[in-house]
Amino acid sequence: MKFCIETDPKNSWYLGTRKFDPLKIDKSETIMYQGNGYLGIRACAEEKNLQEKRDMFVAGTFDSFDDEVTELPNLPDILNIKFEIDQKIFSLSNGVIKNYHKYLNLKNGELIRQFDWIIDQKRIHFKFSRFVSMSDVHLFVSKVEVESDSDVEVKITSGIDGQVSNSGTQHLVEGDRRLYDGKIIQLRERTQRSNIELIFNVLHKIYVDEVLLNSKPHIQMDRQKIAGDYQIKLLRGQKLLFVKYANVYTGIDSDVEEDDICDTSIGDIKQHSLGTYAELLNKSARAWDLNVWQRSLVKIAAADITPQVAINFARYQLAANTPPDSRMNIASKGLTGEGYKGHTFWDTEIFMLPYFIFTMPEIARNLLRYRYLGLGGARKKAKSNGYPGAQFPWEAAWPTDGETTPPWGSADIVTGEPMKVLSGFLEQHITSDVVIAVMEYLYASEDQRFAKEMGYEIILDAAKFWASRLEWNLSQKRFEIDNVIGPDEYKEHANNNAFTNYTAHWCIQKAIEIVKLLRNSDPEMYDELNFKLDLDEVYQDWLAKVDLIYLPRPNEEGVIPQDDTYLTKKKINITPYLSDGGHAKIFKKYNLQQVDNLQVTKQADVLLLLNLFEGHFTQAVEQANWDYYEPKTTHDSSLSLSTHAILASDLHLQTKAYQYFEQGCEVDLGTNIGKTTQGLHMAAVGGIWKMVVLGFGGVRIVDGKLRIEPNLPDTWDSLQYQINWHKSLVKVFVDHDTFKVEVMGNGIEFINHGKIYRIAANSKLELPIEIQVEVND
Ligand code: BGC
């Protein structure tokens, strides 16, 4: 695979660059992002650069400005350190830079940048190292080592700079600036509208040749800014070590009482500063190891190291962008950039959640709890559209906010007018996507407690919405769903989008099953839910409607119509418009209205339905739809690629599967500048794990049962992964001849090519890889 970043053939945890390229700076800042899901910092340099995008976010601190929808504010900069050497301000665009090397260690989350700076015939060696702690979510530590080949005067200015904005929008109101104990620098601010208190503390320690200097900062204050100045005389051959301990607390933190955050934050920074950088890094590295690497192990044995780098990158980013607090969810860009305002989409449920369901069920539970907490907002949205039940928002921020999709998007290329964003109104499949995720979690975890406390209520209320959303078509004598946007956002106002109809029907079916189950097995629970949701009344309605819902069936060629009119639209050759990871090329020629009239699909739609509803359609139908829709799909959404890779793998289209796998891994890591500057494509990141474990590893949940049918790429020697199933850990080892399944914990059952296999508690089973007929693709 071709990445925009250097890899090391011997170390799959390494991502680096040996060239400072100001034009690609944005992209590497995104890829080398550091975070722990609470706090996220882009990999900008400590010193400021013109081309950079300096962003730091804390999950959940949403704020709005005027009538705009809420967004995550870019928070005061705790990263910035300014160096002046003999009165010359250090910058990469100043003097000569030699031996530049910046690299991220995915294993422990440490980012290092080192080089020699040659200025006025002096050579100064800088080494910057830093990490966002995985063990103490509020903590960020950075250190700078400086050596010079001649005696120099070093001036360091470091602190907290609140003069930041979100591409122009200022979200923060100035608060106090203080110095505690003569050494702790503090800035307190508040978000404008949401009024969330934010506290930032910084403490510096300076050593020369390992001797701690007793240096008090000379404080500089400016509007929304506080920093300390330090002057050090550094002799040739001496080593200066500057350590910056920083922490961030907010009024919405769940681990601290709001009244205590200031004291706690001060106490913590004092305590942390007793530890060395290495000690704190080790503690964080242990958390990475225990919480992430050991639990989501994936090992690919292949001559090419890049697939292993990609899966390590995916697991790193999923951990670094997932909030530890269930009132928050993963944004479509994580905490890595301003794109999509920090909002959460179906990207979580369909593309990221499978990873957590199978490796860290308690985190999957948290992410679904967020939807439970969002029921209020979902009910509000349904009500405002005239429906009962819960209609989940297309874009979500704080769970109770309800819909947060901005009403306006970019300009139309034909008319020049700003285009209305209809997804918030019409992209209704999100309600089913949440239900699909809840069911998958329940199937995999058998977490009855979650089902009773939250899961059933989500499903039942979603079904209430869908049942009332159905429209009776008198002439056809069936219920239909008109005027929606399906996953293919190039078809606005579609009638009977297959994905929407099938998934809505399925939701109602699941709700009916739950009512039956509860009435029989847990009448008390049923009464409780009945009281809240009027189940007795709606249940009859569901029964009356469910079999009359129109489900577009495969036509004579086996093709499921994406919607009522898709198959009648004009066909064009989409080759010139295939995505290269940048902006949608189709819009250089057509506007959205024109694309609406073409058989051009933005991203997997019917194909995603086939993938999610595995077992509901024959392989012949899957093949027919693949043959029909794949050549019409531009993949303008990065979400498309993983679905195509998995489906191609299922259909034994090895070459295609691998091509899509590579493209899926290259969404952010690849050489296209694309939109990575606005943040990572977290659904594509989740897609990397899906392609490896669900695709090549062959794991699937089929009607609630585990299926394992591996399909190893030719160029790989073996694949090893582990998943959680029914509270047991299942380790799978695949090579070209056999696959072994080892269970740690209770026995499990799984399906392989139609046969059910049972593995007893703590034992293993080895099966031959069923020889597949090679399909010429
Ligand atoms: C895609 C959506 C996705 C959103 C956020 C859009 O371009 O079409 O499916 O949810 O991006 O990632």
Automatic annotation (TrEMBL):
Keyword field contains Hydrolase? yes
| Source domain of life | Bacteria
Q: Please report the stretch or stretches of sequence annotated as the Glycoside hydrolase family 65 N-terminal domain.
A: 17-250
Where, by residue number, is the active site? Answer: E489 (proton donor)
Protein name, UniProt field: Glycoside hydrolase family 65 protein
Task: Pinpoint the Glycoside hydrolase family 65 C-terminal domain residues.
Answer: 700-757
Q: Where is the Glycoside hydrolase family 65 central catalytic domain?
A: 314-690
Instruction: Spell out the molecular function terms from Gene Ontology.
Output: carbohydrate binding; glycosyltransferase activity; hydrolase activity, hydrolyzing O-glycosyl compounds
Q: Which residues cross the membrane?
A: none
Family stated for the protein in its record: Belongs to the glycosyl hydrolase 65 family.
What's a GO biological-process term for it? carbohydrate metabolic process
What Pfam families does this protein's entry cite?
Glyco_hydro_65C (PF03633), Glyco_hydro_65m (PF03632), Glyco_hydro_65N (PF03636)
The source organism is Companilactobacillus suantsaicola
Report keywords, A-Z.
Glycosyltransferase, Hydrolase, Transferase
Name the positions where substrate binds: W346, D347, K602, Q603
